Amino acid sequence: MIRDITIGQYYSCESVIHRLDARLKIMAALFFIVELFIVNDFIGFAVCAVCLALVVKVSKVPFSFIMRGMKPILLILIFTFCLNIFMVKGEVLFRIGFLKITDAGLYTAAFMAIRLVMLIIGTSLLTFTTKPINLTDGIESLLNPFRHIGVPTHELAMMMSIALRFIPTLLEETDKIIKAQQARGADFETGNIIRRAKALVPILVPLFVSAFRIAQDLAMAMEARCYKGGKGRTRMHQMKLCRIDYIAIVLLVLFFAAVILMRVF
Fold this sequence. Notes:
The protein has 265 residues and is mainly alpha-helical. The chain has helices spanning 16-19, 22-38, 42-59, 63-68, 74-87, 103-128, 132-143, 153-183, 193-199, 201-224, 243-264, and strands at residues 92-96, 99-102. 68% of the residues lie in helices and 3% in strands. The two termini are 44 Å apart.
């Protein structure tokens, strides 16, 4: 299960999506999230799904790699689906004891499940196709106007980037701790929920210790390199838009306009 978590990982390959400007990809992800909440029918979701599938195809990120990251949230999807089926009122289609499945509940459950799946896939593509350093520079550049009102834009961008960067590291550390505990006879797969929750304590304690150790090592390394934040900081590669970025901007605007028109009409 730990290995199935792909959030925050970068998938290295050569594609058009990988070469796009990081700022453009961040804005595209934000626009896609807004579009998913603007859409109010399955036809709009079909259009969004087709566009998302095209982006996945162009990015050359294997679909199996993307779907592997969906496994850890499968329980959340099932819980959300069941909650909407039984809690939304409407015309009763099936009755299981005191539980009632309604037409409105079934519609809402499918609607929310599709939205959640596309939301996760769309936002995951941002980290799959963008290096952490480029993601940091992109976030800092987008937040740069807020610097004039006292917002520490560089520090915020750095914290977000470090958080994403160390998700795979902590997952790998968790996997090592689990294997070490299993080698000592620990059982994490049998018993009821309470017993499984208690079995996690021997994992959480060394994981927190390891996380603090990694954070301390990172802080010492940054201090040893005289890191002083964003003031006076220069970049080896300056971010600038090229022809392919302008084409992507036009396509993004057309897609957003199409979703707005479908919602209006």
